[in-house]
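Researcher: Next entry: Phosphoglucosamine mutase (Pseudochelatococcus contaminans).
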Amino acid sequence: MTRSYFGTDGIRGRANATITPELALKVGQAAGLAFQRGDHRNRVVIGKDTRLSGYMIENALVAGFTSVGMDVLLLGPMPTPAVAMLTRSMRCDLGVMISASHNPYEDNGIKLFGPDAYKLSDEVETQIEGLIDTGVGDRLVSPARMGRAKRIEGVHARYIEFAKQTISANGRTPGKGLNLEGLRIVVDCANGAAYRVAPEALWELGAEVIAIGVEPDGFNINRDVGSTSLSALIAKVHETRADIGIALDGDADRVIVVDEKGQVVDGDQLMAAIATLWKEDGRLSRPGIVATVMSNLGLERYLRGIGLELARTAVGDRYVLERMRADGYNVGGEQSGHVILRDYGTTGDGLVAALQLLAVIRRRDRPVSEVCHLFEPLPQVLKNVRFAKDAPSDDVLLPVIERARERLGDGGRLLVRPSGTEPVIRVMGEGDNGDLVNSVVDEIVDEISRAVA
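Model: Predicted structure:
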């Protein structure tokens, strides 16, 4: 029986335990065979973040790809969205990002992009998994047909120029150039993949840039810095009296912002600010955005008030993107900071999203605290119930959930779902009455706890 290697965002696990050189070699061979196209020399582009284990995985992947006849272009440390962009821009047959995103350095992962720069479909992932398990057999190429590998220069400048071309002075004409002179910006690169490109892009646009999280040593990626650990950014914004703080994660596909007062601006508020301006300028491909079931009800109400809909999906930027592609939306994302702008990219791009927000701030000519707090989030409570063996059955859960929803009425929202990564049931409630939300969530948690005891 075929083992499942891919999760919701590629293959991920502990380096040299789950993500071993042997596995990386097999992934390179399997993905290389799956993406052989025509009779030309097929090629793959590989980027990585700053984890020490990236060297090991990169070399194993190179061995795998070249053994099945693919040429390899090595980018070095680059953001995930840059790898996706360069896959299509350089007419590669496949793109690979070596990263475990916001996880600590001990973890690593392998993300794959097709020639269209989108993440792979379930069907293609299943095909690759089958090849990993069965092996490549006699499909290794002859010595004369083995692939070559080389490092590519100038890719940082190429991505920076791409990112700069997505914004404009007036918010209407991409490519005319946004001037950030007079803005003092703290950017936290999480000691990760964007440690070179993000500060450089902001500086080239005229901003005064204070960069933190830009001293990677192989071990400190996401450690007390980045979009999942905002204390250092908040302190630096206060210390330097900055206008805005921008935090990326380890592979720079998500962004969280801090305003001049040190208040956190999450993905919901970012999407609201961008969508509002795009609606005014007629740039929305349809009147709404896509977000997950975790986005705050306050966002949904705000959008409804300006004539936009909120289409919800399951948790995961992959599901957001699938809905955007299927229904023609061009703005979507997650509360956690994945913001997908399909006019410019095929995956979440923290730098591009930040630049789009800066364009909004310039256009409004008001402080970030005013531009980026368009709605008051409703009180939201999230609790987890861990179970040892089996999750509670629907017969147990459904009556409890129904009673809770009746108590909340139209003034709130409830979500009960099993985690996709660990044996827990997640219970999320939100509503106008914070005390009622807490009471409802506690009631459900108690019922589930009794059922799994």
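Model: Note for the record: The domain at 158-371 is CATH 3.40.120.10 (Alpha-D-Glucose-1,6-Bisphosphate; Chain A, domain 3).
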